[in-house]
Here is the input.
Amino acid sequence: MRDSGRTPAPAGTTRPSERRMEIAFTAFRELHEHRWGAYAYVHTGDAEAAVHITEAAFDRLCAQWPHALRQPSADSYAWSLLKEHVAGWLARHRRGTALPTAALHCAAHLPEPGRGRGFRLLESRMALYAAIARLPERQCDALVLNLVIGYTVAQVADLLGVERAAARSLIGHAKRMVVAAMSAAPAAPAPSPVPETPATPVPSAASPSSPLSVLSALEVPSEAQHSGRGK
Here is the structure.
């Protein structure tokens, strides 16, 4: 972590209080860096851009860390910086979110043991990600953070700056809207390059392509799979 040159900043400090801030910032970055990179990636579809966006967001957060700690929620303040950097990148490149095609990016990077299963779910996941992208921004973020990236409900609440009950409600309502949208979607014609999930008035949990099963397949242990730092 490099010194930003601003005072006070968590990097390069010596006083006990500043040292504590540096330790807190380092711990925060180690907890969130990998997941923030995943969030930037699903919205940009560009691995290199995701790395740069995440680095820029943390550099800015480092410079503003004392200010962040004075906010009602440091997590929410930090999250707003990442969102701003992602939105700025999309605006500069005149792109919308790549979330509807995120399933393709994820499938392309699956390890060999999981690739067969990943491609079997690809069609349904493409419809799922497209449905998530159509949600209101707050619900979209809550569902991406919880189901796609693997944050716990409590962590989602901290990042969004809401109570846990509100975060749980956002996630639950978003799930219901996605399931309803996917269940109502008509079957796509054969030539379509992005086939949609066939309509199923009552999704069956046993069906591998049903909205409920695809949502379930996306649920990942929040600490086991996303605890380390990575690019």
User: Anything to note?
Assistant: Residues 123 and 195 are 6 Å apart (CA to CA).
